[in-house]
Write a structure and sequence with these properties.
Blueprint: H1 13-23, E1 28-31, H2 35-52, H3 58-65, H4 73-82, E2 86-89, H5 95-106, E3 112-115, E4 129-132, E5 136-139, E6 142-145, H6 148-155, E7 168-171, H7 176-187, H8 201-213, H9 220-228, H10 231-236, H11 239-255, E8 259-263, E9 275-279, H12 281-289, H13 293-306, H14 313-321, H15 337-346, H16 363-379, H17 385-392, H18 396-419, H19 423-438, H20 445-448, H21 455-463, H22 469-474, H23 477-484, H24 486-495, H25 512-525
Parallel strand pairs: 1-3, 1-4, 2-3, 4-7
Antiparallel strand pairs: 5-6, 8-9
Helix pairs in contact: 1-2, 2-4, 3-4, 8-11, 8-12, 9-11, 12-18, 13-18, 14-16, 15-16, 18-19, 23-24
The chain binds a DNA duplex through residues 32-37, 40, 90-91, 116-118, 120-121, 134, 136-139, 142-144, 146, 150, 288-291, 325, 331, 333-335, 393, 401, 405, 407-409, 411-412, 415, 449, 451, 524.
Length: 526
DNA sequence: GGACGGTGAAACTTCAGGTTGCCTC
DNA sequence: GAAGTTTCACCGTCC
């Protein structure tokens, strides 16, 4: 192994290697184990460069800063370091920001990205070096070494054939013994075996229901036969125990009334212990919705509990926040434990799931679900990203991802409510989905039906006494134009059946950013 | 003497991400 | 387990 010496202008080895990379006019990825660390390392590097480098990337920084209607602290931080051709990258960024950073790294306008493992998989980037600061990460078993496979993923980002003829992967260690351990485990070690993910109950339940519902299998024997050919069975080896697990799953699905079973009528020797399996109507729908049957069962129980009463939005949000699919939930921090236990009490009449006692093991999940539901309800009360970031430590990228899952789960609730003849429940869920999509109060629902109108514009209209579609129709075009700009105002007016005179081309200058919208909007309309 | 600011040690707190799935005027 | 943040005691400075 060749050794290289690197100048030591700072006492931070990561910064030193980064500076060396920049001196060679190359690019690098720095991998760390936490979002906060990614941001801090980027800032540390930028702080050092501030002395020696003039600002660049002004336009890019501006674009990053305004990726959201209102910049958050995160946007500001990112925009600031980007000026020095440094960036951080993790799941908390908006997809727009992630894209901008990846593209500009490829274009060479960003030299260094400090990132969590978001960038470890799949992306082809011109990094000459990967600098791996952390090989340990906090997981279910505490603070432990990451799998060799992941190390290989990260190192594999360096020296991509399209961009370089060679690449370097550098691991930072602090002691000689740590260095030896890393070389043995990661550099000279073997990657772990791949493990089947089918063995987990929620996954198994889902697939069994799906196989039955799609009529891919019609009997228990066929089902067992199918699983015997999977990688799971190959690893598990003990087919008898596996059959028992499958049998237990079948009984569960039967109890939930998602499938029906019947002993075979024609008792040929072959079928004697076999069972016919058929999905019920509701079972079929659940398989289509692709949610865990247990989740579906819980949803249905909640819908029944609600009965003919109108469910509250908090109640609905808590149902989905308690499901497995929403995980990881927002977790209770030491300082807000009391707040959420009392919130659980406060909302107890609205809750539609059975509440565990404080000493039961499920209580932690339950109280986390209260916090998660609270997070969603703040969003639909029109709180902005900065507020959510400060109050819940949830970054814009993460909240978008959560909202998308929440929407899917609410959709499942809506469908299940329809199938079980609870139209009022279905209607409330439907309204809530729109509110969740836009992050808006109920009073804006009417305006949100308009194309090109989201929470910001709807609020603007509402606060100017334009509160529903009738008001939109009545209001003077000039006033609407003042509020929304000419193009949007026109699109909006057209949607309520009002013709607006053609806008002259010459009037359009200064509206390039809206140009994109209006074009899309008009195409949709015609 | 007291307000204020800077410093550093001690005490807390928190800790990756990706995949599916549905509908849509 | 360790990085990052917050808290708090301590000290020097200034008015």
């Amino acid at each position: 192994m060749k050794t290289t010496s690197i100048k030591q202008p700072t006492n931070d080895p990561v910064v030193n290697i980064v500076l060396d990379t920049l001196e060679k006019n190359k690019q690098a990825l720095v991998f760390v184990n936490a979002k906060r660390s990614a941001e801090k390392v980027a800032e540390d590097i930028a702080r050092f460069l501030r002395k020696s480098k003039s600002k660049q990337n002004n336009e890019l920084a501006d674009e990053i800063l305004h990726a959201l209607p209102k910049p958050t602290k995160q946007c500001e931080k990112l925009a600031e370091v980007v000026l020095y051709e440094i960036a951080f990258h993790h799941a908390g960024l908006t997809s727009k920001q992630k894209e901008l950073i990846e593209d500009n790294f490829r274009a060479g306008k960003i030299k260094i990205i400090c990132c969590t493992p978001t960038l470890a998989a799949g992306i082809d980037t011109p990094a000459y070096r990967t600098i791996i600061r952390d090989l340990k990460r906090f997981g279910v078993r505490g603070y432990t070494y990451i799998p060799v496979l992941e190390y290989l993923q990260m190192s594999g980002r360096a020296g991509r054939p399209r961009y370089d003829t060679e690449g370097q992967s550098i691991v930072i260690t602090t002691t000689e013994s740590e260095k030896e351990a890393v070389v043995e485990k990661y550099v000279n070690g073997e990657p772990e075996d791949i493990v089947s993910k089918l063995a987990v109950e929620p996954v198994l339940r889902t697939y069994i229901l799906s196989l039955i519902a799609s009529e891919f299998v019609a009997t228990k024997k066929q089902l067992v036969n199918f699983f015997s050919k999977t990688f799971w069975a190959h690893q598990f080896e003990d087919m008898e125990r596996l059959e028992k697990i499958i049998d237990r799953m079948i009984r569960t699905l039967e109890d939930f009334e998602f499938i029906e079973t019947k002993k075979s009528d024609f008792v040929s020797a072959d079928e004697i212990n076999d069972e016919k399996l058929k999905a019920t109507e509701i079972g079929k729908r659940i398989a289509q919705l692709y949610i865990d049957p247990l989740t579906a069962h819980n949803f249905i129980e909640s819908i029944r509990k609600s009965g003919v009463n109108k469910p509250s939005s908090f109640g609905l949000l808590q149902i989905i926040s308690y499901s497995l699919e929403i995980r990881p939930r927002l977790s209770i921090k030491a300082k807000d434990h009391n707040d959420y236990t009392s919130m659980a009490v406060e909302y107890t009449d609205e809750l539609l799931v059975p509440e565990p006692q404080m000493f039961e093991p499920e209580y932690d999940d339950f109280i986390d679900s209260i916090k998660t539901a609270h997070f969603f309800s703040e969003w639909i009360e029109e709180k902005d990203d900065e507020y959510l970031l400060e109050k819940f430590d949830v970054r814009p990228g993460e909240s978008r991802a959560k909202l998308e899952i929440a929407n899917w789960l609410l959709y499942a609730n809506e469908e299940l409510a329809k199938l079980t003849a609870h139209p009022l429940f279905a209607r409330e869920v439907s309204k809530l989905r729109v509110r969740l999509k836009y992050g808006a109060k109920e009073e804006l629902l009417s305006l949100l039906r308009l194309r090109e109108i989201g929470r910001v514009r709807a609020r603007l209209l509402f606060n100017n006494s334009i509160k529903d579609l009738g008001d939109v129709k009545k209001v003077d075009f000039m006033k609407l134009k003042q509020l929304l700009g000419e193009n949007i105002a026109k699109i909006v007016k057209e949607q309520v059946g009002e013709k607006v005179e053609e806008i002259k081309e010459t009037k359009r200058k200064g509206q390039t950013s809206l140009g994109k919208f209006s074009k899309k909007g008009l195409n949709k309309g015609s």
